[in-house]
Design brief:
Shape: globular
Strand order of the largest sheet: 1-4-2-3
Helix content: 40-55%
Structural class: alpha+beta
Distance between the termini: 32 Å
CATH topology: Arc Repressor Mutant, subunit A
CATH superfamily: Winged helix-like DNA-binding domain superfamily/Winged helix DNA-binding domain
Strand content: 15-25%
Number of domains: 1
Radius of gyration: 12 Å
Largest sheet: 4 strands, antiparallel
Number of strands: 4
Length: 90
Amino acid sequence: MADSERYDDRRLERVILELLDRRGPTASICPSDAARAVYEGDDDGWRALVEPARRAARRLVTAGEAEITQAGRPVAPAQARGPIRIRRTR
């Protein structure tokens, strides 16, 4: 993994937590929210950051700082398929 990729991964983790902190304690975000917040262009290049944002969310789950949900219920990161949401651990 290149240094720039590790930097972007850490940045995505921070942005996810910052976005969640700005919302209510029960609010959730989509990985695309973090991808858009990190991406510096004005085109749709943020889409390439959605999967890295999903990986960042999985690391935050492992660290106990967030949980991944589908249909409003927490799911194990390895079980999540399709659209997910990220929220603070309850």
